[in-house]
Amino acid sequence: MPNSNAVLLSGRGWLAVVAGFAAVLYLCPLLWARLERWRRPADYRLPYELSDDYWSFERWSAAASAKCPVLVVGDSVVWGQYGTPGQTLTHYLNLAQGTSAFANLGVDGLHPAAMSGLLRYYGKPIQNKGVVLHVNVLWMSSAKHDLRAKEEFRFNHPALVPQFWPRLACYRPSFSERVGIVAARCLPFVSLMKHVRAVDFTNMDLDNWTLENPYADPLPLLKTKMPAPDDAPRSAPVPWTESGTPEQDLRWVRLDSSFQWASFRQTVALLQARHNKVFALVGPFNTHLLTPGSRKRYGILKSALAKRLEETGVSHYVVPELPTEEYADASHPLSAGYARMAAELSKAAAFREWRADHK
Questions:
Q1: What is the share, in percent, of the chain residues with pLDDT greater than 90?
Q2: Which domains are seen in the chain, by residue range?
Q3: In terms of Cα–Cα distance, which of 78, 134, 108, 137 is closest to 290?
Q4: Could you give the CA distance from residue 300 to residue 297 in angstroms, rounded to a whole number?
Q5: 3-state secondary structure of 37
Q6: How many CB atoms lie within 10 A of CB 103?
Q7: Helical (H) or strand (E) element with 89
Q8: Binning pLDDT at 50, 70 and 90, where does residue 217 land?
Q9: DSSP assignment, residue 79?
Q10: What percent of the chain has pLDDT above 70?
Q11: What's CA 11's distance to the chain center, in Å?
Q12: Mean pLDDT score, 286-291
């Protein structure tokens, strides 16, 4: 092409370009993981603002798996919404048993369907471990919590639920959004970019950040340093009786038709396929704030849960009801409640037998 500045690549040249691009996609996450400074003190939990940063969860699951024989996975009940890191379930379990064996892998808003996706796509380092899965029955308190509502609504961790099958009527992203989510699951580089946005750009993509900061240089913001751990309670640790919480008439769902329960069972099967030993921890739910009818329906659901776990051979413990003053809301204990839970769980025969394999 005379008088042209175009550069024509041969087939071999294009292969070199593709190979170089693939190398960048592969090597960048590995290099960033080596460079990023990360302080993980005793009782560490992921910073709250990184609740949907699955790159960080995967790295934390790998670090915790290398250090601790037992990983405790669940939502903000495990994370410790109303307490410091030293006022969480894992802290009191370690204290009760005189070990540092239990790691806090709690993530805010991690309903069972999200837990299934999180561990499937970002929990691969968790293998040959003891895993305590917390069952927060609040996620089965209504068709909406169970993600079976017909109308669309926003819920926690949509990027972790099934994108194409089964279809959730309440979840209606565009096709391109679904494809982007699937790509992030398969390509660590995409997850890394989301991590960098969360840590360094306050969850803004580079285009929007540039619009708001037209004269700023983004490079100095790349700190290669994880945020400091959360040392304070996320919410004020006040008993529910002092916060004006009204009595609740929760309807509850049938276990046979529950999407969240089906997702939990998938999680158990997934972890077992990766040679983990699973222990299910059910509750505690605050029945003090339920109407008599709702309390009766909850009792039926709780019994059904225990029966199903028994039938499927999953070691489990149903936490007895705590004193009313030890609850912050419907499902979160306060510090004294966690201490009581840990003490009672440590004495439970089913847990001691299961724990004997994971010293």
A1: 59
A2: 14-355 (3.40.50.1110)
A3: 137
A4: 5
A5: strand
A6: 26
A7: helix 89-97
A8: very low
A9: H
A10: 81
A11: 45
A12: 94
* Residue 164 · residue 178 · CB < 8 Å: yes
DSSP-H helix ranges across 173-291: 175-186, 188-200, 206-212, 259-273
Q: Residue with structure tokens 């979160």?
A: 332
On whether the CB atoms of residues 256 and 214 are closer than 8 A, the answer is no
Between 35 and 285, residue with greater pLDDT: 285
Within 8 A by CB and 6+ apart from 348, the residues are 317
Residue 223, helix vs strand vs coil:
coil
What's the chain's Rg over C-alpha atoms?
Answer: 23
For the record, the structure tokens of 68 come out as 């601790």
Specify the pTM: 0.86
Largest CA distance in the chain: 87
| Cα–Cα distance for residue pair 211/206, rounded to 1 Å | 9
- In this structure, which amino acid lies at residue 183? A
Residue type (1 letter), 78: V
pLDDT confidence of 254, banded at 50, 70, 90? very high
Round to whole Å and give the CA distance between 281 and 285: 12
